[in-house]
Design a protein that fits this description.
The protein is α/β, with parallel strands linked by helices. Helix content is about 55%, strand content about 10%. The protein has a five-stranded parallel β-sheet with strand order 2-3-1-4-5, sandwiched between helices. Helix 1 crosses helix 10 (about 180-205) and helix 3 runs antiparallel to helix 5.
Length: about 210
Amino acid sequence: MSAALRIGLTGGMGSGKSEAAREFARVGVSVIDTDVIARQLVQPGQPALAEIAACFGESVLDGAGKLDRKRLRALVFADPQQRRRLETILHPRIRDEALAQAGRAATPYCVLVIPMLAESGDDYALDRVLLIDCGEAIQRERIGARDGLDAAQIEAALTAQASRAERRALADDIIVNDSSLSALTVAVQRLHKRYQALAREHLRRHPS
């Protein structure tokens, strides 16, 4: 099992998590993205997809038997109980695969991108949590530009997430990403140096 330090990277929709994760990857850090794992888990033939179809009905599948993400998103954003049902199916599977990948990490520290960390309550046995943060006005602008959602859809998506205060309460480190991509890059690179030092200390205390 890898002795890599585990950094959980989280943030609300439109905060810039993906950009931060890409920067960590560019500097050579192992990045484990739970959104990527989630997409793999719902490919045709996977047990999770069959369970989702059994739970929510065949209408969440398209004509090719693939998950209709837009339809499923509309269902779970509109109904907290439905969202919890989906989380019960997916979150344990996502966590187990993410931790398995972290256990194989070949770098001194690894970054686990967990958008719903504050909402899921799943135990990822993290050493630190990094929050990519920004104000709701910026979130709304970015979500609208990126996803093409209208104001009501954006509101539903934000309501389904933990509050900014709840996310900040979980964080050991915070990057406020409210300006340029270059500023985010500088902030990530600064933390990279800090995490390298912390990883060396972690390895001394937990040799593999």
